[in-house]
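Morning!

This is the sequence you dropped in the shared folder:
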Amino acid sequence: MKSVAIGISLSLAVSALASKCAAQCHNAEVITRDVAIIGGGATGTYAAINLKDAGKSIVVVEKKGELGGHTATYHDPATGTPINYGLQVYYDDPLARAFFSRLNINVSKGEFPTSHTPLYIDFTDGVELANYSIPGLNDDYLAELHKYPYLENGLELPDPVPEDLLLPWSAYMKKFNITDDAFATYSRPAVAGDLTKTLALFVFNNLNTVMLEEEIDGKTIVNANGDYAEPFRNALAELGADVLLNSTVVSGQRGSKPAEGVRLCVSTPSGAKQIVAKQLVFAAPPVLDNLSPFNLDRRESAVVSQFAGGFYYTGVVTNLGLPTAHSYVNRGRATESHVASLPGNVMFNPTAVEGTYYYWYTSLSALTRAEVEAATRDTLKRLQRRVAGADAGAEPAFVAYNSHTPLHPTAGAEAIRAGVYRDMYALQGYRNTWYTGSLMVTGSPQLWNITSQLLPKIIAASEQ
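The structure's back. Tokens below.
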């Protein structure tokens, strides 16, 4: 009798949630699909194309006006030249090549933009660091990395988690006498937050063998035409009406059994729509702000509430008033290992369009576009006053912007000790929901790899 009562309670709860969803989507168009995908970044797009190829019907809900996520491309209006100011290269592996081929993309060897002589400057006062350079990583770092092979392609951690991995990176380097690598590991640009306080676990997970092969061995590919947004435009053209752009989930109900499926109420530019799907793929960062419309239960809330992402922004700016023979890199003059002070710009890198630069900006709290661009303008004005040959009267013009927040969500040491990553992996398939994205790995081909491993399970669940 007890099991019957529980079953009745669950059914009543599901019915109540379905009624709420229906009320918010009253008279809305109903979209019925095998799989609903939340987030149209690299991972969500990969899942959508591959599920479609497997014969599954899909719908993608993307809050921005295009697919691509951390891929951000601006086209110079005068020349049409693509300027990529987010993702810069892809790891060269068979999975990436196959996906690009599937989207009719020609690839060529990729290179990081290093064609201009860098000036290392403390952006807080505009003073250049004399005789400064960034050394490469040595074998000491590699020896430490190889102690933890389970960090290379995810975060399936042993129990207990080695306490050394929960040390701040600065403490880990001192303990194992690898401080000569400090400059190199602190010089990774696309890492949010204070790098001296980042847990060693996340340094190894991010700066893994794949990333090292990209940076040291040059094992990279890019779009041959330089337009990194092209794969996602091609995917959008193919997926067509199965992608809801500029759209967000307002409320959702997910059943506990495959037969109960998923119901979502979605706000779109053309009005509310109701999605009825068998399975849900969550390809956006799994943090509470993003998941709150999905009616999390206590188990789910206890897990995802432990994760928070970094605050990271990118953009394109012209008329900097700085000599165009250089890139400009932020380094602290008096900070530990010359790490840059936060919040602030990471760097200004030149592009193929003379006088047009892309910049990255990291913070310790959420910022609006206006705040990021105002702070970036202030930085450029400081540089104009101190850099030789600069034009202090030039007024920077901001022409493109993208928010990458939350970037690479992470958990704290106590949550990791308590098994939060184990519990996150255990949520796969729970309440007809599957998670993929930058929580476990960071590079796009690695994201595609873990997604490809999930797809057979998602397909099987959708057929129950």
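Headline: DSSP finds 15 helices and 20 strands in the chain.

More detail when I'm at my desk.
O.
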